[in-house]
Amino acid sequence: MMLQANEPNDFVIASGVTTSLETFTQKIFDIAGLPMDKHIQLQPDLIRPSDIGHSALDPSLIKARLGWKASYSVDDIVLKMYYGELY
Protein backbone atom coordinates (compact mmCIF):
# COMPACT_ATOMS: atom_id res chain seq x y z
CA MET A 1 0.00 0.00 0.00
CA MET A 2 2.79 2.42 0.88
CA LEU A 3 4.69 1.68 -2.33
CA GLN A 4 1.61 2.28 -4.41
CA ALA A 5 0.53 5.50 -2.69
CA ASN A 6 0.07 8.50 -4.99
CA GLU A 7 2.63 10.48 -2.98
CA PRO A 8 5.53 9.18 -0.91
CA ASN A 9 5.37 9.90 2.80
CA ASP A 10 6.82 8.81 6.12
CA PHE A 11 4.11 6.44 7.31
CA VAL A 12 4.18 5.12 10.87
CA ILE A 13 3.14 1.48 11.19
CA ALA A 14 1.80 1.08 14.71
CA SER A 15 -1.31 0.13 16.63
CA GLY A 16 -1.64 3.50 18.32
CA VAL A 17 -1.90 1.70 21.66
CA THR A 18 0.95 2.32 24.09
CA THR A 19 2.07 -0.51 26.37
CA SER A 20 4.90 -0.32 28.86
CA LEU A 21 7.75 -2.79 28.64
CA GLU A 22 6.84 -3.95 32.14
CA THR A 23 3.23 -4.70 31.11
CA PHE A 24 4.37 -6.44 27.93
CA THR A 25 6.83 -8.58 29.90
CA GLN A 26 4.24 -9.35 32.59
CA LYS A 27 1.86 -10.67 29.91
CA ILE A 28 4.52 -13.12 28.73
CA PHE A 29 5.30 -14.31 32.25
CA ASP A 30 1.55 -14.74 32.90
CA ILE A 31 1.24 -17.02 29.86
CA ALA A 32 4.27 -19.00 31.02
CA GLY A 33 2.79 -19.28 34.51
CA LEU A 34 5.91 -17.79 36.08
CA PRO A 35 6.20 -15.00 38.64
CA MET A 36 7.99 -12.16 36.88
CA ASP A 37 9.42 -10.76 40.11
CA LYS A 38 11.31 -14.02 40.73
CA HIS A 39 13.10 -13.78 37.36
CA ILE A 40 13.51 -10.07 36.60
CA GLN A 41 14.89 -7.41 38.88
CA LEU A 42 14.93 -3.72 38.08
CA GLN A 43 18.16 -2.01 39.04
CA PRO A 44 17.54 1.77 38.95
CA ASP A 45 21.27 2.52 39.01
CA LEU A 46 21.59 0.80 35.61
CA ILE A 47 18.98 3.00 33.91
CA ARG A 48 20.75 5.32 31.50
CA PRO A 49 19.76 8.99 31.42
CA SER A 50 19.26 8.62 27.66
CA ASP A 51 16.69 5.80 28.02
CA ILE A 52 13.28 6.76 26.73
CA GLY A 53 10.73 7.05 29.54
CA HIS A 54 7.70 7.03 27.27
CA SER A 55 7.27 6.37 23.56
CA ALA A 56 4.05 6.54 21.57
CA LEU A 57 3.52 6.17 17.84
CA ASP A 58 0.68 7.77 15.89
CA PRO A 59 -0.57 5.78 12.88
CA SER A 60 -3.26 8.33 11.95
CA LEU A 61 -1.55 9.40 8.69
CA ILE A 62 -1.41 5.89 7.24
CA LYS A 63 -5.05 5.32 8.21
CA ALA A 64 -6.19 8.61 6.69
CA ARG A 65 -4.17 8.30 3.47
CA LEU A 66 -4.19 4.56 2.85
CA GLY A 67 -6.98 3.20 5.04
CA TRP A 68 -4.54 0.93 6.91
CA LYS A 69 -4.96 0.04 10.56
CA ALA A 70 -3.33 -2.54 12.80
CA SER A 71 -5.05 -5.90 12.85
CA TYR A 72 -3.21 -7.33 15.86
CA SER A 73 -3.39 -6.23 19.48
CA VAL A 74 -0.53 -6.31 21.97
CA ASP A 75 -2.05 -9.49 23.41
CA ASP A 76 -2.01 -11.06 19.92
CA ILE A 77 1.66 -10.17 19.51
CA VAL A 78 2.55 -11.63 22.90
CA LEU A 79 0.77 -14.88 22.02
CA LYS A 80 2.50 -15.04 18.64
CA MET A 81 5.89 -14.47 20.25
CA TYR A 82 5.32 -17.10 22.94
CA TYR A 83 3.60 -19.83 20.94
CA GLY A 84 4.81 -19.03 17.43
CA GLU A 85 1.23 -18.62 16.22
CA LEU A 86 -2.01 -17.00 17.30
CA TYR A 87 -4.36 -18.95 19.55
Q: Stretches where pLDDT falls below 50 for ≥5 residues?
A: none
For the biggest sheet, the summary is:
none
The helix/strand class is: mainly alpha
State the end-to-end CA separation: 28 Å
Enumerate how many helices there are, as a single number: 3
Mean pLDDT: 91
H/E element sequence: HHH
Mass-distribution shape: flat
Query: Strand-residue fraction?
Result: under 5%
E-strand count:
0
Report the radius of gyration as a whole number of Å.
Answer: 17 Å
| Count of the separate structural domains | 1
The helix content, as a percent range, equals: 25-40%
Describe this entry's structure for a reader.
The chain is mainly alpha-helical and 87 residues long. It has one domain. Helix content is 33%, strand content 0%. The protein has three helices and no strands. The chain has helices at residues 21-32, 60-66, 74-83. The longest helix has 12 residues, at 21-32. The two termini are 28 Å apart. The model has no long low-confidence stretch (mean pLDDT 91).
